[in-house]
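Summary for the steering committee. One of the milestones for this cycle was to obtain a three-dimensional model of the protein with phosphoribosyl ATP bound, which we needed before selecting residues for the alanine scan. The sequence and ligand used are listed below.
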Amino acid sequence: MITLALSKGRIFEETLPLLRAAGIEVLDDPEKSRKLILDTNQPDVRVLVVRATDVPTYVQFGGADMGITGKDTLLEHGSDWGGAGNGAGLYQPLDLDIAKCRISVAVRADFDYASAVRQGSRLKVATKYVAIAREFFANKGVHVDLIKLYGSMELAPLVGMADAIVDLVSTGNTLKANRLVEVEHIMDISSRLVLNQAALKLKREPMRKIIDAFASAVGKV
Ligand code: PRT
Ligand code: MG
């Protein structure tokens, strides 16, 4: 049995064509079904539906053999596990080039970020991505107080709780709708295939088949 961990939403949707390229069809729709383990047309392949931030954990601890997760999530997970920002021992063979976005710093349109940084003020930064934010501002030599949030980061500057946010941006519409502007582009993000190393040793052949099918489908689907 090969177990693949996926999160609902955009990663799931964008993974379906890659699975199809590997001859795998998921038989249930995770948005409709309450099942957490989904069958596929292949009797020896199943899909776990987990929270996006839990995908690396399931793969690291062997709850799943492989998973698909954003680079953002992997970097934060790696820092929790003392890994050098690399996902703590998770093998990452492939950038799948899906669920693409960027991670940026944004502020209220009326906040003078450039002067705040120039004058060496302490910035209050709200984010779900504390490890990425800490490293980015440390490299710039900017002092920050980090406020950890789990979602809707855009609110924090609007209510005066933070000067800036570090968040994912794709179209920019969410920032625009909340009168925030992007002032720094920290890095580009896409989703990666991650593998449990022990599983790869035990199930090398069937896992290799899926990895190879994904690799040849990347960029084509
Ligand atoms: O929702 P839950 O708390 O369970 O987890 P999650 O929010 O981490 O999951 P999900 O499905 O929203 O995102 C999963 C992964 O998709 C992320 O870890 C990223 O790698 C990737 N991804 C790609 C994105 C986006 N694009 C994205 N735009 N994740 C989130 N967003 C959000 C962003 O946080 C912001 O609120 O969309 C909003 C901005 O979008 P635009 O288009 O308005 O700029
Ligand atoms: Mg979400």
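Key point for the committee: DSSP finds nine helices and eleven strands in the chain.
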